[in-house]
Amino acid sequence: MTKTLHAIFEAIAKVDNEQELQQALKDTLYEHFGVQHWGISFLDNELLTSIEIPEIPAVCLESNPVGSYVLERHAPTHEQLILSPEDWKNFCTRHEHVMTGPIVCDGHLVGTLNFARDPGSEPFNNNDLADLSAVCLHLSAKIATLRAQSKPPQIANECPLTARELEIAELVAKGLTNGEIATQLWITQNTVKQALKRMFKKLGVSARAEMVAKLQEHFIVRNS
Questions:
Q1: Could you report the per-residue pLDDT of 141-190, keeping only the tens digit for each?
Q2: ∠ at Cα 194 (212, 171), nearest 5°?
Q3: What is the mean pLDDT of residues 194-223?
Q4: Residues β-bridged to residue 102
Q5: How many other CB atoms are found less than 10 A from the CB of residue 182?
Q6: Phi/psi zone of residue 101: left (φ > 0), alpha (ψ -120 to 50 degrees), beta?
Q7: Helix (H, G, I), strand (E, B), or coil: what is residue 138?
Q8: Which range has the top average pLDDT, 14-18, 59-63, 147-151?
Q9: Which of 23-32, 38-47, 123-132, 209-218 has the lowest mean pLDDT?
Q10: Angle, CA 132 vertex, CA 139 and CA 146 arms, to 5°
Q11: CB–CB of 162/153 below 8 Å?
């Protein structure tokens, strides 16, 4: 059993995008959980629509008690944990046993992993539920990683200072006086003073320390 679970974990780890998940997990999930039908359904359209296998629909989160349980608790369950056999037949006439687990990303339920067994099959048990929980943890982590990688890079703030002004700002951050900055950059103290006035205006600040703090937070100046 452990070997099969490890095969599932490895298959999840190797996929490069969400579209590959179904094919990558096809054989290992059938074998390990002993199901006739399974599918992955995503509840949003961030990267793709549902990729479930056609024989098993996505769990209906509005009307199916199994789906409602997963939606509310972000925890896996199967029908016998929350319904009697008679009550379950009122909700599903195609599958005798159903088990569903959550796929969570950034604290939100983004999808479900769904399993179904045909009439005459053994019901899902606690071992199945524990294994599903482990698989869902790996799936959730993988989805979070894939979606983080797919986000466009944030555009850095464009610094309004010129290259020369940035040189002055770096020296201010190091604690140099106007005279020391003038000597190091081979310019006059008045040039430094006028440059600082322009820099203050561009950044909307009124003091050296405030300027350095703003640059350190939003741009590139580092105190050393």
A1: 999 998 887 765 544 467 888 888 888 999 999 899 999 999 988 888 99
A2: 35
A3: 84
A4: 112
A5: 19
A6: beta
A7: helix
A8: 14-18
A9: 38-47
A10: 0
A11: no
Kindly state the tokens that stand for 167.
């040189």
Instruction: Give domain 2-150's CATH number out of 3.30.450.40, 3.40.50.300, 1.25.40.20, 1.25.40.390.
Output: 3.30.450.40
> For residue range 44-59, what is the model confidence (pLDDT) as tens digits?
543 333 334 434 445 5
- pLDDT score of 8 more than 60: yes
Q: Where are the domains of the chain?
A: 2-150, 163-218
Percentage helix, strand, coil for the chain under 3-state DSSP, each rounded to 5: 55, 10, 35
The identity of residue 130, as a single letter, is: A
CB 79 within 8 A of CB 88: yes
Question: In the structure encoding, which two tokens stand for residue 71, read together?
Answer: 């939606």
Q: Tell me yes or no: is domain 163-218 CATH 1.10.760.10.
A: no
